[in-house]
Amino acid sequence: MSETDILDTGVLDTGVPMARIAAARVVGPSHLEITWAAGNRGGRTETVDVAPLIGSYKVYRPLRGDAALFATARLIDEGDAIAWDGPDLEMSADLIETIAEQEMDSAEFARFLKRNKLTQEAAAALLGRSRRQIGYYLNPGPVPRIVALACFGYEALAARRRSDAA
């Protein structure tokens, strides 16, 4: 795309598809089941815990501990955001996609171990956790966000090292 195209259309195409939500429903306190229409997760349906967002931004303060208000979640702007009853209670699809990318469930954790040829003992040493905790992460349920981020970081670092060595 040339500079003239940008001036003519007012659109800058980065080649990265913007997140868009096809469907959303509340499935628990601070948990939304999201079906992605577009973006990095397009075509997937997954449960996303938005508690880190609700706890981090003042604008979401009314949602903290108010299950009835959280239950009013609905799609707006053709799937570009989710809104709740109340003033300025909107969360963009991009923001939700970002938090979804930072989550990991037990199946993803098991795939991380397999991809990286890690035993539970090696993973415990790598992640600074006990062998027992690693076993818990392999049981159904979410993996703590800090552990998921450490796993993602480990893989990014390993990929960079492979690239540098090539």
Automatic annotation (TrEMBL):
GO terms for molecular function: DNA binding. It comes from the Bacteria. This is HTH cro/C1-type domain-containing protein. It comes from Rhodoplanes serenus.
